[in-house]
Amino acid sequence: MTTATKQSKPADANTTFEFPSVEETTQRMRDLNERLIDSSKSAGLVALDAFEKAMHSFEEFEQQIASASQLDWVSEAAKTHSKFVSEMTSSYTAAVRDLLK
Q1: Which of 36, 39, 66, 74 is deepest in the core (most CB within 10 A)?
Q2: CA distance 18 to 44
Q3: Are the CB atoms for 8 and 18 separated by under 8 Å?
């Protein structure tokens, strides 16, 4: 990598400004992009964990409703829905985790 810089002298000052080379600027942009991607992945995983926890709480609530019902068909419908939500949540979160890694 070359470290050549352009120099520019303003007409009214003795100060010299040094501009980074294209290679240096490009590398800085790549580094910044990598940090942004890593931060976004971390934030995505935090959000995914929160979603998974919320869905687990919903599933537990639905199971409590199923066990409290005196009607068999309501209980079975709630259990079936709870199982469906649990399986879909597991599949969804597993797929998203794979994408974020």
Answers
A1: 66
A2: 39
A3: no
- pLDDT tens-digit series, residues 39-96: 999 999 999 999 999 999 999 998 888 888 888 998 899 889 999 999 999 999 999 9
Instruction: Yes or no: say if 93 and 48 are a contact pair by the CB < 8 Å rule.
Output: yes
pLDDT at 29: 96
Task: Quickly tell me which residue has 């580094």 as its tokens.
Answer: 31
Q: What is the domain partition of the chain in residue ranges?
A: 23-100
Q: Is 70 helix (H, G, I), strand (E, B) or coil?
A: coil
Q: What is the CA angle 42-88-100, rounded to 5?
A: 20
Round to whole Å and give the CA distance between 101 and 93.
12
Closest CA to 1 of 17, 15, 22: 22
DSSP string computed for 18-37: EEPPHHHHHHHHHHHHHHHH
